[in-house]
Amino acid sequence: MTPLHWKLVIDAADPHAQADFWAEALGYLVEDNSAQIDRLLGLGHVTDADTVEAHGRRAWRNLVAVRHPDDPYQEETGIGLGRRLLFQRVPEAKSGKNRLHLDLHAPPGRRDAEVARLEARGASVLRHVKEPGGEWTVLADPEGNEFCVQ
């Protein structure tokens, strides 16, 4: 079987704010889909109401992705072909514990500094965990999605 290409999709009330947070948290880039959007606008397939201005360029109103800066991407669409997180607008708020979350691995001895950096960008510390198998900090992003820093 050929391995499948995938992305992690995260529901969000404000996809652009979430993308900005996670791009900063991970050192990723917010994808630039403006060329694709301009082409589709020119063809009449989408309207201005489907877009917003973000980072000085046209972006999709209801979804935005971040990608690893070293991974390939399609120049004509801006869509990443590697490690990506896609944030999509949903009407309902988060209502329970995540069934899936990201674990961020800080360099040795830098967990506390990484937690402080993420808190300064809008994350909240939920708890510290110390078990025989390891130690980590559980945080929530600005919309309450849990993640860990080891």
Structure description:
- The structure is a single chain.
- With 150 residues, the protein is α+β, with helices and mostly antiparallel strands.
- Helices cover 21% and strands 32% of the residues.
- The protein contains three helices and ten strands; from the N terminus they run E-H-E-H-E-E-E-E-E-H-E-E-E.
- Strands 1-6-5-2 form a four-stranded mixed sheet, with helices on one face.
- The longest helix has 12 residues, at 15-26.
- It is elongated.
Could you give a quick summary of the protein structure above?
With 150 residues, the protein is of the alpha+beta class.
Helices, strands, pairings?
Elements: E1 8-12, H1 15-26, E2 29-30, H2 34-42, E3 51-54, E4 57-60, E5 63-67, E6 84-89, E7 102-104, H3 111-120, E8 124-131, E9 134-140, E10 146-149
Parallel strand pairs: 1-6, 7-10
Antiparallel strand pairs: 2-5, 3-4, 5-6, 8-9, 9-10
Strand content: 25-35%
What is the terminal-to-terminal distance?
Answer: 33 Å
Instruction: From the alpha carbons, calculate the radius of gyration and give it in angstroms.
Output: 17 Å
Main beta sheet strand tally, sense and closure: 4 strands, mixed
Strand order of the largest sheet: 1-6-5-2
